[in-house]
Design goal:
It contains six helices and three strands, in the order ααβββαααα. It is globular and about 45 Å long. Helix 1 packs antiparallel against helix 2, helix 2 runs antiparallel to helix 3 and helix 2 packs across helix 5. It has a three-stranded antiparallel sheet, with helices on one face. The longest helix is centred in the first third of the chain and has 16 residues. It is mainly alpha-helical and 196 residues long.
Length: 196
């Protein structure tokens, strides 16, 4: 079964990004993608596009707001596996200095400082093209291989890691369900305790 990608492993991946991507801009792009996916318990389809030319990316630039006091970012999820109604859900992701570069507030502020204004997709390459599912999955595969991690890791491993760490920290079941936008107790299948 898939292994969890924990905060510790994701921090290691962020520190290795310069060896996998072509520029400092791409480091900031992938850092924000990793940060949002972990802090927001996101499914791959909620933040990455099917193709670089996606005219309707799952996250547009207008879907992320950085609060003026920099206490949190607010992410608007317009559609998801469990929400096909078209009514958006809003996730408030708090600043968390203990997350280091994975703190959603610092990752967003760092990326917005360099992101081209014209890009429609929130997670866009410097040329404006959208970050794709394949690109994100390929990066995770390279990084987990470089870290010599054993077991199966996919983009879903980040969601598993987020749920597992929340459970390990003592978060109540209802809180985990709400954070991951689970409509049933299916979330218990995501928790891999003890956390190694």
């Amino acid at each position: 079964s898939r292994r969890p990608l924990t905060k510790k492993i994701l921090k290691s991946i962020v520190s290795m990004l310069p060896t996998f991507v072509s520029s400092e801009y791409e480091v900031k792009l992938f850092t924000l993608a990793l940060s949002l996916s972990f802090a927001g318990f996101l499914r791959l389809s909620e933040f990455t596009s099917v193709s670089r030319t996606d005219a309707n990316p799952p996250l547009a630039k207008s879907d992320l707001s950085l609060l003026r006091d920099k206490s949190a970012v607010v992410l608007r999820i317009r559609r998801s596996k469990t929400n096909q109604s078209g009514r958006p859900e809003f996730l408030s992701l708090d600043a968390n200095p203990a997350m280091g570069p994975l703190c959603p507030v610092s990752a967003a502020a760092s990326f917005f400082a360099v992101r081209p204004a014209a890009s429609h997709a929130l997670l866009a390459h410097f040329n404006g093209s959208a970050l794709t599912r394949n690109e994100f999955q390929n990066l995770l595969r390279k990084a987990t291989l470089s870290l010599n991690l054993t077991g199966k890791f996919t983009s879903h491993s980040i969601r598993i890691g987020a749920a597992t760490e929340a459970a390990a920290a003592g978060s109540p079941a209802l809180t985990i369900m709400k954070k991951g936008r689970w409509r049933s107790r299916a979330f218990v299948n995501y928790i891999r305790l003890p956390l190694l």
